[in-house]
Amino acid sequence: MAEHPGRRERGPVGPDDRQVVARQLGRPPRGLHAVAHRCPCGLPDVVRTAPRLEDGTPFPTLYYLTCPRAAAAASRLESAGRMREWQADLARDPALAAGYRAANEQYLAERDALGELPTRTTAGGMPDRVKCLHALAGHALAAGPGANPVGDRAVAEMGEWWAAGPCVLPEEDR
């Protein structure tokens, strides 16, 4: 399986990354725990979030796709009906379904290491549904190729979201 674009990371979130993510989202990030993946342009495009927000509210999205261009690419796939297609593939392909269940277990283990939630549901719909390609692509980018077969499909079809350069400008260039 081919490597995903950019690079995986588990680094702490510094003030510069926090500012970039805030500009990407158009609001201050919530529950920000770490940068999980960097776009080929060098900016964060996936962050790892805490299982609970600062006020204690459960937040099941461990990996959050922050780059607006990557998010738009995932949205285009959703609009094109890929979620329905891949959901049907899960029912037809036992190997794909097994890989997706394994992705769910790995995701839950990582989330539980940060703090357990009462739900075993994940934001992407794992292990039985294809619910959110943004979450699944974020997981695939953060965990690496082969970790999430449906997320890998999304990343492969999202195109080169980074090709036009950084999605936000550095603070000093604004």
The SSE string, one letter per element, is EHEEEHHHHH
- The number of domains: 1
Q: Count of helical segments?
A: 6
Terminal residue distance: 39 Å
Low-confidence stretches: none
Could you give the order of strands across the largest sheet? 1-2-3-4
Oligomer: single chain
Could you characterize what this model shows?
It is a single chain. With 174 residues, the protein is of the alpha+beta class. The chain has one domain. The protein contains 6 helices and 4 strands, in the order βαβββααααα. Strands 1-2-3-4 form a 4-stranded antiparallel beta sheet, sandwiched between helices. It is globular and about 50 Å long. The mean pLDDT is 92.
Question: Which keywords apply here?
Answer:
single chain, about 170 residues, alpha+beta, four-stranded antiparallel beta sheet, 6 helices, globular
